[in-house]
Design brief:
The complex is a heterotetramer of chains A (about 325), B (about 375), C (about 525) and D (about 300).
Chain B lengths: L4 H28 L3 H10 L5 H26 L7 H18 L5 H28 L5 H21 L5 H5 L28 H18 L1 H11 L1 H6 L4 H28 L10 H11 L4 H25 L5 H20 L2 H27 L1
Chain C lengths: L9 E11 L2 E12 L3 E6 L5 H8 L7 E6 L2 E3 L4 H6 L2 E4 L11 H8 L4 E2 L2 E2 L1 H14 L15 H14 L4 E5 L7 H14 L4 E5 L3 H7 L2 E6 L2 E7 L5 H9 L17 E11 L5 E11 L3 E5 L6 H9 L6 E6 L2 E2 L5 H6 L2 E4 L3 H5 L6 H5 L10 E2 L2 E2 L1 H14 L16 H14 L4 E5 L7 H16 L3 E6 L2 H7 L2 E6 L2 E7 L5 H8 L12
Helix pairs in contact in C: 3-4, 4-5, 7-8, 14-15
Chain D lengths: L3 E6 L9 H16 L4 E6 L4 H13 L4 E4 L5 H10 L4 E5 L9 E6 L2 H14 L4 E6 L4 H17 L4 E6 L6 H13 L4 E4 L4 H9 L7 E4 L13 E7 L2 H12 L6 E5 L6 E5 L9 H15 L12
Parallel strand pairs in D: 1-2, 1-3, 3-4, 4-5, 5-11, 6-7, 6-8, 8-9, 9-10
Antiparallel strand pairs in D: 10-12
Classes of the chains: A mainly alpha (about 325), B mainly alpha (about 375), C alpha/beta (about 525), D alpha/beta (about 300).
The structure holds adenosine-5'-triphosphate (2 copies) and magnesium ion (MG) (2 copies).
């Protein structure tokens, strides 16, 4: 195998697999930009994956089969929004500590998805999933074509969402409000911004994206479902937000780095070089830490009020 | 006699929280077609009905207390350590390896050494995240999440390779597990026929020691100051970075010790799946207990009850195993919300004023009614 | 937006009461502001001034009472309602998002720049331009807030509020962080603006009150204790009305002999967080029992100088020392042990650990000393006794010494810091803006304490923007400008004018050039 | 005969189309055969070792006669309980050890099924590259994988088996990723074991029109929609084990034996999938049948431990 095909293989597998992480991490970025730290991402993803899967599973042989994927994506997004709002109720309205509430949400989402799946479906089950949509023309470009232009619709949309979320965050009134309530909620409040509402919106957005990330896992990536489908990817997405310093472009970079490292380690194993494979499996995790340690920049800080509830009446 | 506003307030909020928790779980149970009331009855009462249930609750509480204590130290020092899961694994490995290497020592000598080794294993793993944060400025949430995965692989590597039970290779079953620890490294059971072991005493003693460490020693003062106000602490001459590192070392040591106690008290050999999610439940227990040993101990008992009770519903009510998670999640979300509302002086102030207005109105209504 | 609506001819609050848990912040307050009037609201820390204004802005809901504009009752549920009615407020603490630009901050609060999926920053810039020209308040729309000095931020606050269409302006302690020049400019501006709008002006500086207002109201413990025309009052009479006794800020009577030269800073260069040289060859020394006042517009290196001395920032070249002890680039611990006391600029995050109790904060530097610990264990009894003693002698007002220090009022927090630092009997004391935002009572107390320290032979570096404070207390005055000491002069030679010029960087014609 | 109460404790679920389902299905089949009034059955899923301890104790308290911990991770727990409850029969696998007198162990000799799958893979591959999607290199999977490699080599020494691991039994998303990697690296026949294998099969199924094939380690895989890619599949038939447990207990033997699973004792079933079409030629089928016959008759001994 030539180096070029090796690289092209690694990339063409790694890039699509970054999508779920990317979507979830972008969602978490909106949460954190608004000052809310949501460790429950994992649970929302599990629900999203489950609901994304359900229509495809039940409608497989019905006349509605053509709409199953769309229905699944919508259901996943909707459930994500609802769970995001539930999290908002706990952390914004009742001001519950966010870390622990996040773990609660993770358990709730994961548990609900698993319980219902167990009851209505049973064991690991495949579905047709999202077809890949090679872009005419572009997908024929050698090397780059299969790498970048033969993915499914959700993947294109996810990558498209990187500039969109940049625009949303930095160029729209809504993004301005999100950033303001995450940095200095009291100032936003005195300027007539409804801090609670804005944080609810951010969490709904975060939930939506996490739900879609889940749906991508079951519909776009695995094309099947089992209750442990998320397998910690939600936590990795949260970590990637720190890696990406709350910026869509960096988050894209982090998701790609992680996924490509992942497909790289698999490719190395497949090549048959003899060494304990456990160390190969570790590679992406080690790499993320190392890259962050080497490129640290003290100037970049998180949203100043990250993790803190806001109460207008309280002085400190 | 009218109840005092404070009691009424707490009662009402708690009731609302219970209704919310049961409500969330009830939705899922209703979809399954299970009986909501019976399910909760099983969870909350069944484990307490016999000595077996009660001891199993305590068995779960032991690692939860230990991990929770470590989490309390790190959170109090301003580090969000979610790496207990990995630290537990490293503790198990270190403890098991030590016990296996020193089979000849008498229990009274060996057990402390094994505990220390476990603590050390966890401490080393914690120190990595501590160093990354204190010296290289790597966010600890990121590093601890990643280190959990790395630890899991390292653990698997050691159990499949260097530490595997030779019998597993000989008979060909090849299950990744170490040899059985020498009997001199077993923690004794307290009540024969149950799994309750003396690790509970270790956990309770350490709870007292952690209280002393955090609130009665200069090191505790330093670490809490660094966590509560890093800037002021630095101005006050406290080496904040040192405190962060120390906190992570201690948190790791506690998680590692939890692993050591679990392997010597319950499993008696290093196998996969020992931790059973204690690393995350331990965070919940610690926060639930207000990051204070006096709260962590009861909160660990409560979560032990929840785990055992929910598990029982699987067999008694044929409810899928994942329902445990739904229940835990619903309970966590509603109880912490209620706790915040109960402790919010502003909300209580509004409540008690509304209450007194109402009572006044009632009274004046009554008196005018009487005079009329 | 501005001008479209009717003018605010009168604004009345009637019987406003507001309770916080355990505190009656406003106790049935009634006040009236007429057309083009400037009402000064004064009172001790915690009298309820800010609370009342927050109610006017719709941030807090009153428990009782009503607000009327032009005789019509209004209810403000959110700040938006208040803005819509034409009321705007410059808050006591800056309400600007630091990592956004000026234009973004303005656009954030003005819904007419919120287009569908688009932020009309050009519109915001234009509005800023208009307002800043109209009121001669120069601001750069594209500068980030964190890049601006305190004075510039204050200007941005004003512009922002005016951009929101305020026709009734509330200014809550707008001058507490301004330089004398900036304060003077603001007062001139307010007088000019009062031709167009009514203004409520809150300040602890009574001279400003008499200069700018035509009516004055005094609050004490949430009640209006005096209300009348300013023209009949002097600063001294207001102070007496406020506190119930005559207030005399202590003065350093300069004639006492200072001791030998004790603390020196020689040619120090150090970088700021943003990488340029914030200290560019600073050079001075302080004698035993001397107060050296360091005047200057904030942002000229004061913060960095204080940090360098305290060991929190590294020195690139030069030296800092006391006889027999070199402080340069030593750790904060070593510097503390050498006898340096420090009152930091930001009392809430640098001076105290807010969630720690008062008694813990009082031993923040000494908890591990032999006095307060035995081996690795804390001596809680001694901690407690120490706190009780200092609470008494420094008159710290708190429910108990176990209260969280962060819940105290600003004045009391400052007393906790002062108590901790002075109780350690420092040989050198660095005090950075020690009276910012404090009322006269607290200021008097702190000034007295500093002079006592001086009398005991401590060498004191007093960093302040208050020229009165410096001229009252200092033996010599140094002026810092762009990281350099422009001049050091004995305080009897210093005048407000000469110092003001030096602070602006103008060295020619300044009298008393001397080292 | 007296009634027997059987309890099963598993780490995943009883319909995981793999390891746990095989045992569950066997118990259900035996229950059907013996009659529900003779065999009472209950199971508990998702049991980590510590949770399994509580569940097993609860089963003992409820008077269950036979408690099966389906996984060697339950070994210690079972040995300990066997000591405490000498009247109860316990069983766990995989293990070849002879346990105490009330403990049965069972041991699938999976290298046998691996070998046959390997023979087919070696003959089917055109690229001479075969992909092995391993969960971890241990236990049952290690035997299967080594048997598979030997099977390939026996018919096609030139073929290269690319072995790689996901590091997890359950992460089928990663298994799919690994299968794609294998295929990109040229593999045209793949196999793998444990629950994660379904993910790899799902990935193979995506190459619908390409000649890329799967060999299953569980016959349940022949019933999934992706089965058009599965040439053949082997699986465990625990019926023999379950019947032995019941029969021996009823004849007074509570344990103390190890029951192997292999072709000679009917512990495995092997099924070809006729739906895959011409790829499964008569020759290939014959070669596989022959290997199976040789293994069953012990003519062929698979030295799986020799494979590094
Ligand atoms: N956010 C808060 N929550 C609860 N109580 C508070 C809060 N802020 C202040 N307090 C309480 O209100 C009391 C009065 O504070 P206030 O700001 O009025 O200070 P003060 O008594 O006027 O003193 P000073 O003149 O030094 O400012 C404080 O002692 C404090 O205990
Ligand atoms: N959010 C709050 N929660 C609890 N108590 C408060 C709160 N805000 C103000 N208080 C209390 O209400 C009283 C009035 O405070 P307020 O801030 O209005 O005083 P102020 O006159 O503005 O003082 P200063 O001169 O220090 O600004 C104080 O006792 C203060 O402690
Ligand atoms: Mg105050
Ligand atoms: Mg105020």
């Amino acid at each position: 195998m030539s180096i070029l095909t090796f690289v092209s293989n690694v990339l063409s597998i790694g890039i699509p697999f970054s999508v779920a992480l990317l979507l979830a991490a972008l969602g978490e970025m909106f949460n954190q930009r608004a000052g809310i730290f949501n460790l429950g991402c994992e649970g929302i993803m599990a629900m999203g994956a489950f609901l994304g899967f359900i229509p495809a599973y039940f409608l497989q042989n019905s006349p509605l089969a053509g709409y199953a994927n769309l229905l699944g994506v919508l259901a996943a997004g909707g459930a994500g929004i609802l769970l995001g709002l539930l999290f908002a109720l706990a952390t914004v309205t009742f001001k519950a500590p966010q870390g622990i509430a996040g773990i609660g949400l993770q358990m709730l989402g994961w548990g609900t998805a698993g319980t219902l799946f167990r009851h209505f479906v049973g064991g690991v089950t495949g579905i047709p999933g999202l077809p890949s949509l090679p872009i005419p023309g572009l997908s024929k470009i050698p090397v780059l074509g299969p790498m970048l232009f033969s993915m499914n619709a959700m993947a294109y949309l996810a990558f498209l969402f990187v500039p969109v979320s940049y625009y949303l965050l930095f160029k729209t009134p809504w993004g301005l409000k999100i950033r303001a309530v995450g940095t200095y909620p009291r100032a936003a409040d005195t300027m007539g911004i409804n801090v609670t509402k804005t944080r609810y919106q951010a969490l709904a957005m975060g939930g939506l994206l996490a739900g879609l990330a889940g749906a991508y896992l079951s519909l776009g990536q695995a094309k099947m479902f089992a209750d442990d489908i998320v397998a910690g990817r939600g936590f990795i997405a949260v970590a990637l937000v720190y890696f990406g310093r709350w910026h869509p472009a960096w988050i894209l970079g982090g998701s790609l780095l992680f996924s490509i490292a992942q497909s790289f380690q698999l490719a190395i194993q497949v090549m048959g070089i003899k060494f304990p494979y456990e160390f190969a499996v570790m590679l992406p995790y080690v790499l993320v830490i190392v890259v962050l340690a080497l490129t640290r920049s003290s100037a970049v800080r998180g949203p100043a009020e990250l993790g803190k509830a806001y109460d207008r009446e309280k002085r400190i | 006699m009218k109840p005092s506003p404070r009691i009424l307030y707490i009662a009402l909020v708690s009731l609302a929280a219970a209704v919310a928790a049961i409500g969330i779980a009830a939705i899922v149970l209703a979809i399954l077609g299970a009986n909501v009331f019976d399910t909760f009855k099983v969870i909350l009462t069944e484990p307490l009905k016999d000595i077996f249930g009660i001891t199993e609750i305590l068995v779960r509480a032991i690692p939860l207390i230990l991990v929770g204590l470590g989490i309390a130290i790190s959170f109090r020092s301003g580090i969000l350590n979610i790496g207990a899961e990995g630290q537990i694994l490293m503790g198990i490995i270190a403890a098991a390896a030590t016990a296996i290497a020193l089979p000849g020592l008498p229990k009274i000598v060996l057990l402390p050494i094994v505990f220390l080794a476990g603590a050390l294993g966890g401490a080393v793993w914690g120190a990595i995240a501590g160093y990354l944060r204190a010296v290289l400025g790597v966010n600890e949430i990121l590093s601890t999440v990643m280190l959990n995965y790395i630890a899991a692989q390292l653990y698997g590597f050691l159990l499949r390779g260097p530490m595997i039970d030779p019998a597993e290779l000989q008979t060909g079953s090849g299950t990744p597990q170490s040899v059985r620890l020498p009997r001199s490294a077993w923690i004794d059971r307290i009540i024969p026929g149950t799994r309750l072991h003396w690790g509970i005493a270790v956990a309770l003693v350490l709870a007292v020691l952690v209280y002393i460490l955090l609130w009665r020693t200069t090191w505790g003062f330093k670490m809490r100051a660094a966590g509560a106000g890093a800037k002021a602490a630095r101005y006050g001459g406290i080496k904040v970075e040192q405190c962060l590192l120390m906190a992570m070392v201690l948190a790791g040591a506690f998680a590692g010790l939890a692993g050591a106690v679990e392997v010597t008290g319950v499993h008696r050999r290093a196998i996969e799946g020992i931790s059973s999610g204690y690393g995350f439940s331990g965070i919940v227990v610690a926060l639930f207990g207000g990051l204070h040993p006096a709260g962590i101990v009861p909160s660990a008992f409560f979560f032990g009850l929840l785990l055992i009770g929910a598990d029982m519903t699987q067999r008694m009510m044929s409810i899928p195993a994942n329902m445990v998670l739904v229940l835990q999640g619903a309970v966590i979300l509603s109880i912490i919300s209620a706790k915040m509302v109960i402790n919010d002086p502003y909300a209580f102030d509004k409540f008690s004023r509304a209450l007194s207005r109402r009572r006044k109105k009632d009274e004046s209504g009554k008196t005018t009614g009487e005079t009329a | 937006m501005a001008g479209k609506l009717q003018k605010i001819r009168s604004l009345e609050v009637d019987g406003i009461t507001k309770r916080f848990p355990g505190v009656l912040a406003c106790d049935s307050i009634s006040l009236k502001v007429g057309e083009n009037e400037v009402l000064a609201l004064v009172g001790e820390n915690g009298a309820g001034k800010t609370t009342l204004m927050n109610i006017l802005m719709g941030l807090y809901q009153p428990d009782e009472g009503s607000i009327r504009i032009n005789g019509q009752e209004v209810r403000f549920k959110t700040p938006n309602d208040a803005y819509a009615a034409g009321i705007g407020m410059v808050h006591q603490h800056f309400m600007l998002v630091p990592n956004m630009t000026v234009a973004e901050n303005v656009a954030l609060g003005a819904p007419d720049f919120h287009r569908f999926m688009r932020l009309d920053l050009a519109g915001a810039r234009k509005r800023i331009q208009e307002i800043s020209e109209k009121f001669s308040l120069p601001v750069q729309p594209d500068a980030y807030i964190w890049q601006l000095s305190v004075g510039e931020q204050q200007r941005v606050e004003l512009v922002k509020t005016l951009c929101f269409g305020a026709r009734f302006l509330i200014l809550d302690e707008p001058t507490s962080a301004l330089t004398p020049q900036e304060t003077d400019e603001l007062i001139v501006l307010l007088k000019r603006m009062s031709a167009e709008m009514s203004i409520v002006f809150i300040s602890h500086k009574l001279a400003e009150v008499t200069a700018v207002s035509n009516k004055v109201a005094i609050l004490r413990h949430g009640r209006v204790v005096f209300s009348g025309s300013t023209s009949e009052q002097t600063p001294a009479s207001l102070a007496a009305l406020m506190t119930g006794h005559e207030v005399n800020l202590p003065v350093n009577n300069c004639c006492e002999e200072c001791g030998e030269e004790f603390f020196s800073v020689r040619n120090v260069r150090a970088k700021s967080d943003r990488g340029f040289y914030a200290l560019d060859g600073i050079d001075f020394s302080i004698h035993k029992g001397e107060i050296l006042g360091l005047a200057g517009v904030s942002g000229n290196g004061q913060r960095e100088l204080a940090e360098v001395i305290a060991g929190l920032r590294s020195v690139e070249s030069g030296s800092i020392g006391m006889p027999g002890f070199e402080l340069t680039n030593k750790s904060p611990r070593e510097i503390i042990n050498s006898g340096l006391g420090y009152i930091p600029e930001d009392r809430n995050t640098e001076g105290i650990v807010p969630s720690f109790s008062i008694k813990e904060n009082l031993v923040l530097k000494d908890f591990a000393s032999d006095e307060f610990s035995a081996g690795p264990f804390l001596n809680l009894k001694k901690q407690e006794a120490n706190a009780e003693k200092l609470k008494e002698s420094f008159d710290i007002r708190c429910p108990s010494v176990a209260t969280a220090a962060g819940s105290l009022s600003g004045g009391n927090i400052q007393k906790v810091i002062l108590a901790r630092e002075l109780a350690r009997n420092p040989k050198v004391l660095v005090a950075v803006y020690p009276t910012r935002g404090l009322d006269m009572g607290a200021e008097e107390f702190i000034h007295k304490s500093l002079l006592e320290m001086r009398a005991r032979g401590t060498a004191i570096l007093l960093i302040s923007e208050e020229l009165d404070e410096i001229m009252n207390l200092a033996d010599r005055v140094a002026v810092i400008y762009k990281g350099k000491i422009l001049k050091i002069l004995p305080s009897h030679q210093a005048t407000r004018r000469s110092l003001g010029l030096l602070m602006a960087g103008i060295t020619e014609n300044a009298p008393g050039a001397e080292r | 005969k007296a009634k027997v109460k059987i309890a099963l404790i598993v780490e995943s679920t009883v319909d995981d189309k793999g390891w746990c389902q095989a045992m569950h299905d066997a118990i259900m089949a035996v229950q059907k055969k013996y009659g529900a009034n003779l065999v009472e059955y209950s199971y508990t899923e998702k049991m980590k070792p510590v949770d399994a301890g509580s569940a097993a104790r609860q089963y003992v308290a409820k008077g269950y006669d036979i408690i099966i911990g389906h996984g060697a991770q339950y070994k210690n727990l079972i040995l300990e309980m066997a000591d405490e409850f000498p009247k109860t029969t316990f069983a766990f696998g995989t293990s070849g050890e002879i346990g105490p007198k009330n403990v049965f162990t069972y041991m699938p000799e999976s290298e046998e099924t691996g070998y046959i799958n390997g023979v087919i893979a070696g003959l089917v591959t055109k690229a001479n590259i075969i992909g092995l999607v391993g969960p971890v290199d241990g236990g049952d999977a290690a035997r299967y994988n080594r048997g598979f490699i030997l099977g390939v080599k026996s018919v096609n020494p030139k073929a290269q088996v690319q072995v790689a691991y996901t590091g997890s039994f359950g992460d089928f998303v990663k298994a799919a990723e690994l299968a794609h990697t294998q295929i990109k690296a040229g593999a045209d026949v793949l196999t793998g074991s444990a629950q994660q294998a379904l993910g790899a099969l799902r990935a193979v199924a995506e190459y619908k029109d390409k000649q890329i094939w799967w060999l299953g380690q569980d016959t349940a895989q022949l019933a999934v929609p992706e089965s058009y890619k599965v040439i053949a599949a082997a699986s465990y038939a625990y019926e023999a084990v379950v019947e032995a447990l019941i029969d021996k207990r009823q004849s007074g033997v509570l344990g103390g034996e190890s029951i192997p699973l292999n072709f000679s004792n009917g512990g495995f079933v092997y099924q070809f999938n006729d739906k895959v079409g011409p790829v499964l030629t008569a020759d290939i089928r014959k070669a596989a049948e022959k290997a199976k016959a040789d293994i069953t008759s012990r003519k062929l001994v698979i030295n799986w431990k020799d494979v590094k």
